[in-house]
Write a structure and sequence with these properties.
Length: 317
């Protein structure tokens, strides 16, 4: 584990960490041994000692686990990525509970996000589609992707992880959101001279809605997009990129965050496409930070960062 935040010279014993994080000594030890959550120093007597940065990281991990994320999923995150996750969780929960934060109102006066979540809970696919299409028509692309669809997906995922939302509701919502994103992509008009990006998820990675968000972000930023879907081997990305003369490949990685096959797939991509830009995002991408640096991949943590990258590279050759 690489510490992302500067630490002071002060080191703390286990009992101080327990007091400041609320973690039990046994749980603290399990997180260290099984998940490499932190790597404490040792005193001359072999007592474990923790820096302020270690305590900050442990508190963020505890908050993420309390919010429903498995420790195995979030332990590979850097400290900065953990902070971003917690901040996003807080923003999403606030949006879900505070109807006054709505970007636009539905006919019933509820917020877009609240109305969408109600439709998901009621298994009402038509109501969900109507809410999302109306929002897409009234809102700009940025606000639709970043203010509605991204937090909606995050909230649905969080509720599913916590067992609040049944799998059938999650599947129904995913299908409607997929249709909405496809409709947004079809509505985008890209120049024939615009660069092309190939988008999908690697082999073994089934969650493709993050990839669809990335595809929609590219299409609405003026790029031509070839969307391949989920669970594809590197060879398929290579063939598609070579045949279309793609300027970039964008991959979404959600779970798993410890896939032993993925480093080899990423290296194969880079070997076959040494000059193609490789952009990687998704909540599970932090688990592959070392190999991403090795293959010179660009890791983007948010949809905002991705849209900025698309805009900056639209006319680049």
């Amino acid at each position: 584990m690489i510490s992302e935040l500067p630490s002071s010279d002060t080191l703390h014993p286990v009992r101080a960490v327990v007091d400041r994080t609320g973690l039990s000594p046994d749980l603290l030890r399990a997180w260290e041994r099984r998940y490499n959550a932190v790597t404490p120093s040792r005193s001359s007597g072999r007592q474990r000692l923790y820096s302020d940065a270690d305590i900050t990281r442990l508190n963020l991990l505890r908050q993420a686990v309390d919010a429903g994320w498995p420790i195995s999923h979030v332990s590979p995150y850097t400290t900065e990525a953990l902070q971003a996750l917690i901040d996003k969780e807080a923003r999403t929960l606030k949006m879900a509970s505070d109807l006054s934060n709505a970007a636009i109102s539905t006919s019933s006066g509820d917020s877009v996000l609240a109305a969408a979540l109600q439709a998901v809970e009621n298994y009402d696919d038509r109501a969900l589609e109507a809410v999302l299409r109306r929002a897409a028509l009234y809102l700009g692309v940025d606000e639709m992707l970043e203010g509605v669809l991204s937090p909606l997906l995050f909230t649905i995922g969080s509720l599913w992880h916590q067992g609040v939302l049944r799998p059938a509701s999650e599947h129904m919502a995913s299908q409607v959101i997929r249709q909405t994103l496809g409709w947004m992509m079809e509505s985008a008009q890209a120049s024939k001279a615009a660069p092309l990006v190939v988008v999908g998820t690697p082999t073994g990675h089934m969650h493709e809605l993050g990839a669809m968000l990335a595809a929609a972000a590219g299409a609405t930023s003026g790029w031509r997009v070839l969307y391949l879907g989920g669970n594809l081997p590197a060879a398929d990305f290579v063939e598609a990129a070579q045949r279309t003369h793609a300027a970039a490949i964008a991959l979404s990685i959600v779970v798993p965050s410890d896939d032993v096959r993925l480093p080899g797939e990423l290296r194969a991509l880079r070997t076959a496409l040494p000059h193609t830009k490789l952009v990687v995002g998704g909540s599970g991408s932090g688990g592959y930070e070392r190999v991403l640096k090795e293959v010179d991949a660009i890791r983007l943590l948010t949809l905002v960062q991705l849209r900025v990258w698309f805009n900056e590279h639209l006319n680049a050759r």
